[in-house]
Design goal:
The chain is an all-beta fold and 115 residues long. It contains no helices and eleven strands. Strands 2, 4, 5, 6, 9, 10 and 11 form a seven-stranded mixed β-sheet that branches. Strand 9 and strand 10 form a beta hairpin. The chain starts with a strand and ends with a strand. The mean pLDDT is 96.
Length: 115
Amino acid sequence: EVQLQAFGGGLVQPGGSLRVSCAASGFTFGRTFMSWLRQAPGKKLEWVSCINIDGDIIDYADSVKARFTISRHNAKNTLYLQMNSLKPEDRALHYCVGIWPQRLWGQGTLVTVSS
């Protein structure tokens, strides 16, 4: 059974940092391109970042560039998203998604940025 379980979300103050993780199982994580997406309340799903298999090709949405860092540990089947300088508009349910060679979705983790 394919599982992508994001965790590590929570409440953080504006300007703070948080790292969310995603534990993968049931497929070959080390051969899968991965991405983070997020959905804020009442808004459309937004692509945040993506990473290739080796972790040397990475891209970010303009809204998070220079603040967020995506990474992966293939031996641990885990995807990470380090979020710094968080803003209230970063509040969203964050999902990790397998994007190639197959599209895989998991449960998200909620990040709330509020003072």
